[in-house]
Write a structure and sequence with these properties.
about 160 residues; mainly alpha; about 0% strand
């Protein structure tokens, strides 16, 4: 079944008033509206990330990872925190681990795309954008933000 057909079916379902929340949620947040994953266990790390204290966030997230090493949301936020500190190797490892568990994790795909742009790998960033395009049936903020970042990167590098 092609993506266009699936999107048309989903549009019809919306018009008929049927719920598509379970189908449309491609990962990254349970509500689809938050910049961060919805989880009370993540809140302490999210709070220090919001303050720019990525080292403390890594400490908190590492403790959570010990409790549940297969939580893609924890791995994604670890990747985010490492990336913000400029530790691209650890960021990449954590994003890849999150995506191995949940390939359509919206935030992990967006942030990995941003990492690729930071490391000069436009082709890989565009791959993440394609994954988000597929995962975000009717568009999502992660797709829009990565698309804008790619556009800015191309303009900066004179690649338009």
């Amino acid at each position: 079944m092609n993506v266009t057909f699936l999107r048309l079916c989903l549009c019809a379902m919306l018009v008929l008033g049927l719920s598509t929340a379970a189908v449309a949620d491609g990962g990254g947040s349970s509500s689809g509206n938050n910049a961060w994953e919805d989880s009370s266990k993540l809140k302490p790390a999210q709070d220090v990330i919001a303050l720019g204290d990525y080292n403390t966030a890594i400490e908190k997230l590492t403790a959570l990872r010990r409790e549940d090493p297969k939580d893609p949301d924890v791995l994604n936020l670890l990747g985010f925190s490492y990336r913000k500190l400029g530790d691209f190797d650890n960021a990449l490892r954590n994003y890849e681990a999150a995506l191995a568990l949940k390939p359509k994790h919206l935030n992990a795909n967006e942030y990995l795309g941003e990492l690729y742009l930071q490391t000069g790998r436009l082709d890989k960033a565009q791959e993440r954008l394609a994954v988000l395009d597929d995962a975000c049936f009717f568009g999502c903020k992660q797709y829009t933000k990565l698309k804008q970042a790619i556009k800015a990167y191309k303009q900066d590098k004179g690649l338009q």
